[in-house]
Amino acid sequence: ExxxxxxxxxxxxxxxxxxxxxxxxxxxxxxxxxxAYAGKLKVAKLNVDENLEVPKRYGIRxxxxxxxxxxxxxxxxxxxxxxxxxxxxxxxxxx
Length: 95
Fold this sequence. Notes:
- By secondary structure, the chain is α+β, with helices and mostly antiparallel strands.
- 36% of the residues lie in helices and 26% in strands.
- Strands 2-1-3-4 form a 4-stranded mixed β-sheet, with helices on one face.
- A hairpin with a 2-residue loop joins β3 and β4.
C-alpha cells in the first residue's frame, strides 16, 4: 500500500480475484497499458481474496475494479472489464 500512496507517478490499482473471468480478460490489457505508459503510470494488482482489508477500506464491491491514485488520493474509479481503448481513454482523461 505505501508504494501506491507515496508513488511519484499516478498508480492504477487493479482489484481482482483468481475466479473472476472478467479480471482474467483485462489482465493482458493492463500489461499492455503498463508498458505503454511506463514512466508516466504504475500498474499494481491486488488480489481481493488474499487481502480483505484494503478493498473493504475503499468500498470495493465488484471486480474487476480499477482505481487510479494520484498523490495518495483516489482520482478515478472504473468497475468492470474495459477494452484497451476504453482504458487508455480513462487514463488519458485522468492522469
